[in-house]
Amino acid sequence: MMSDSMEASEKQQPGLLGWLSHNQGSLVLHLLSVLLLTGLLVAVLVQGFKAPSSPGYEKIYQQLLQLKGGVDSICRPCPWEWTFFHGKCYFFSKSQRNWNDSITACLEVEAQLLIIESDEEQTFLSVISKDKGSAWLGLSDLKEEGSWQWVDNSPMKDSFRKYWLKGEPSNTYDEDCAEISSTGWKDNSCSLEKFWICKKPASSCSR
Fold this sequence. Notes:
With 207 residues, the chain is α+β, with helices and mostly antiparallel strands. It has four helices and eight strands, in the order ααββαβαβββββ.
């Protein structure tokens, strides 16, 4: 069992490293673009004050326009404040809502309350949750006690039962909605206000 766990962990690491590398690379690219634009803008202003109609001013102005076009064409698969992972975009809320209102909040940004589709995705989210804290999953047994379904009406995979914390789901106080934390899943009262996670497909970079 220990060997199987270690092998699974090793398989999941490249995905996490790829996610970290992608986000760091995008950040560096955006910062460099902003710095270049700022430098050229300063140059344009200085040159413009010295000789507004000079050939040098025209050349710098054309370079600025070309650079602006390059920055505008940079592909951004996810909106600002969303996190990219394996072709999907994730939004981690900064406020708290009950489970039903969390579903509505995601629909308002053309997304769904989090549906987990793979073990690798679960690993990624458990790592993120260490900093973000626990949040609502798009998972409940509201329709039938003990029958857990995602918000798209698909059933929870039997293989995902391993993600429930020990003794969960407990349904201690009519707890029909699931939340995720860095340590696993647990059920809770749907009326409680918690953070939530939205998920939607990333935009295509093809042009």
